[in-house]
Amino acid sequence: MKAKCAGLAVLFLVACGGHAQTAKESRLNVAQFGLVKTSCVWYPGQVRFLDDDHLVISAPVAYSCDKSNRGKATDTQITVIDLQGHQLAGIRRANVVEMVAGPVGYVTVCTGDRIELLSRDLQIAASIEIGAKGVSGHCYFRNRLSPSRTSMAITGPGKAQFRLYQGSSKEPVAELWTSKGQSIAAVAEDGFLVCEQKSTRCEVVGPAGTVRSFPLPGFGYYIVGLLTPERLLVADYAGKHLFAETSAGDKVAVGDVAKIRPPFIDSRSAEMSAVEPRRILYRVDGCLLGDYDDCYGVVFRRFAVFDSETSTLVFRHSYAQGADLKISPNGRVVMEQSGPEIHLFRLP
Predict the structure, then answer these.
(1) What is the pLDDT of residue 137?
(2) Which of 1, 183, 199, 198 is nearest to 85 (CA)?
(3) pLDDT in tens, 18-57
(4) What ranges do the domains of the chain cover?
(5) Which residues, other chains included, contact 16 with Cβ-Cβ below 8 Å and sequence gap of 6+?
(6) In whole angstroms, what is the distance from residue 334 CA to residue 348 CA?
(7) What is the DSSP string of 78-125?
(8) Angle at Cα 224 formed by Cα 80 and Cα 44, nearest 5°?
(9) What are the tens digits of pLDDT across the range 323-347?
(10) What's the CA gap between 45 and 58, in Å, rounded?
């Protein structure tokens, strides 16, 4: 089956340095693969980059928007398509709790008691036990992929236990048990970034112990991930700063986010490409006048892509309300997904 794709359009935008940037935009409608437009805030349907040239779609076959269904196994259609909308593989699974992007070339499916890595043809490449079904946190994947998308951290089966896997390997390359007050802020290629409020440090802990450490970002700041092995990417909740921080605490700006933020911010997020020098996708929404709950002016939704090596703005654009934004592993494509509607921005 083939999705219909609108004709290509060329967008011209002006970057910080005043030089014109171009990006080709294409549109796909993937409703035929089961994805729907819904106001259900916990609807599990989503689209993720499998690799630079393919997307994977997770669409529940039938889903009742009831809070009691959140986090439960769902009958799900999983489909792999290319960036032109052509279907390459499809499978129906009755036990999908969550589907997320895995290491490049794989999709990660959590069934509640197992993590399965599916290859591009949606065959099971690895199946890893994570503990009893319904245990809180076992299907939690935030910040669990390494920057290059080669390694992935999996929770369990023990309490406060984490295991690091590379690619589709069935055996972990590192294990970690966290203590009270510790949290995993990100995953490195060679270990876990463990932060502790008491020591005010974040340490990369590998199989042989602590590899390197960084200062814990202060109040109002959060860690996006490891920009390089020796630098953290850090942002602030106020949307004014995006910078790289070294182990010595030195800070280097990697993007002027203040120029794209509205006066009143409601939410913001950032993610990185897998390829170095990494490109950073930064998203922000808010209000130009008043506050977000009582907005008198235009509601502001914009994303930008920055080159982390030169700190220059590569591309920026507005996005639709409620849309999900993702950047391809090579940093050359931004996907804006709103229900079954997908916009692809091919960047220079």
Answers:
(1) 54
(2) 1
(3) 443 678 999 999 999 999 999 888 899 999 999 999 999 9
(4) 1-30+256-348, 34-177
(5) 256, 259, 312, 313
(6) 11
(7) EEEEETT-BEEEEEEEEEESEEEE-STT-EEEE-SSEEEEE-TT--EE
(8) 35
(9) 999 999 999 999 999 999 999 999 9
(10) 5
